[in-house]
Recover the amino acids of this structure.
């Protein structure tokens, strides 16, 4: 990133115009796999925000001392250290959610958002903007996760955060939960719909 | 026989892309044409088949609860499995770097065709995911681990080549709505393929 960008832009651009998931196409794997329910999606989003912001700061602090040949290993080790901490915290304080997320907490390490932002931003910027960039991109990721999980849980189970939202009388008149929404492929369709909406508003993103 | 079952199961039913969404980033980024997709697929296959047995041995003899018993009585109740994430990713990253250097030295032509993909592999979730699933499922022997890993990665290869072929056709022959062009339609194709792959779910061996 050559030109000087204001801190505000760094923080807010990733929310829609430069969204990590639907524009930069980073971090898709976990975005799709954990969104069958709202609760794991929120926990996953918070974990990614924390890891991303901290990893960005740490690597931005040591960016001038890392030899370029082994920078990928260094980045991975820093990220892996942070993820281990998050994983142990979740095991201690949110055991059920962490069981639902299973390997996907570990897979934050290889979440492309992390590597992408570290390479593209933290390695060439000062700690404070890097921190904001981490928060911004983490939030952008979390927003997509929450939107997808909201629709999947609402239409698939009729609940939100485990609480029944669609009233009982709907079911008595023949309303059925759409079981298809819980299946993994529907996450892709929901994300595709978000992309469709977003690209129709932002003409310059269209191919 | 059991290993063969596991192998086929891992290709079709537990498909990395369609059942677990692992390795999606490179799957979406490098599937514009069949040739590069095949190149990346082979590179990933190669790395997973190397790293999975190493990680399996690490897990069994060093990281698992009680795995250090071979050092002596007093080490028998040490459990350092919380270090497994760091160990696995270190193995993968350093193997990637090693393989990259070895390929560059001994087979420049292979390096020319695979070269750009090798750094991408270190952060391919399919590979770390393979190791983590291996840890979760407690495979009985290193052969079982290799069979499962081979199946996962072949399933991945199959998926990326298939989607690349479909994308080639879609971009040249069909009239996709403008906002969906490129990445949007790829998501939808992947979803449809995923639904198709779900038909394998009922297969029992």
């Amino acid at each position: 990133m050559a030109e000087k960008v204001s801190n505000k832009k760094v923080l807010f651009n990733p929310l829609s115009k430069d969204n990590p998931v639907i524009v930069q196409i980073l971090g898709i794997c976990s975005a799709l796999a954990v969104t069958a329910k709202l609760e794991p999606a929120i926990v996953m989003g918070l974990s990614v925000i924390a890891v991303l912001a901290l990893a960005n700061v740490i690597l931005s602090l040591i960016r001038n001392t890392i030899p370029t040949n082994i920078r990928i290993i260094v980045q991975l080790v820093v990220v892996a250290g942070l993820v281990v901490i998050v994983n142990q915290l979740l095991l201690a304080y949110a055991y059920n959610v962490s069981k639902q997320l299973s390997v996907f907490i570990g897979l934050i390490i290889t979440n492309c958002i992390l590597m992408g932002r570290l390479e593209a931003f933290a390695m060439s910027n000062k700690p404070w903007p890097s921190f904001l960039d981490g928060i911004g991109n983490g939030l952008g990721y979390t927003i997509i996760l929450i939107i997808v999980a909201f629709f999947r849980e609402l239409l698939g189970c009729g609940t939100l955060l485990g609480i029944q939202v669609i009233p009982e009388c709907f079911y008595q008149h023949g309303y059925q939960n759409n079981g298809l929404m819980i299946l993994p492929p529907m996450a892709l369709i929901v994300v595709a719909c978000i992309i469709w909406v977003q690209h129709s508003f932002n003409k310059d993103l269209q191919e | 026989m059991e290993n063969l079952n596991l192998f086929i199961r891992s290709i079709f039913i537990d498909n990395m892309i369609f059942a677990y969404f692992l390795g999606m980033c490179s799957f979406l980024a490098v599937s514009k044409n069949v040739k590069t997709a095949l190149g990346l697929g082979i590179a990933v296959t190669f790395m997973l088949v190397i790293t999975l047995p190493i990680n399996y041995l690490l897990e069994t003899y060093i990281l698992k609860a009680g795995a250090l018993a071979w050092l002596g009585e007093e080490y028998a109740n040490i459990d350092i499995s919380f270090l497994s994430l760091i160990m696995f990713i270190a193995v993968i990253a350093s193997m990637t770097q090693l393989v990259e250097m070895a390929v560059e030295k001994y087979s420049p032509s292979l390096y020319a065709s695979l070269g750009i993909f090798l750094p991408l592999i270190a952060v391919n979730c399919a590979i770390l995911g393979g190791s983590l699933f291996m840890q979760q499922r407690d495979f009985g022997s290193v052969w079982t681990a290799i069979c499962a890993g081979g199946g996962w990665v072949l399933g991945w290869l199959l998926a990326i080549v298939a989607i690349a072929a479909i994308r080639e056709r879609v971009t040249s022959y069909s009239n996709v709505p403008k906002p969906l062009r490129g990445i949007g339609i790829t998501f939808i194709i992947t979803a449809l393929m995923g639904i198709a792959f779900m038909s394998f779910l009922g297969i029992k061996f």
The longest strand of chain A covers residues 159-160. Chain A has one domain: 20-206.
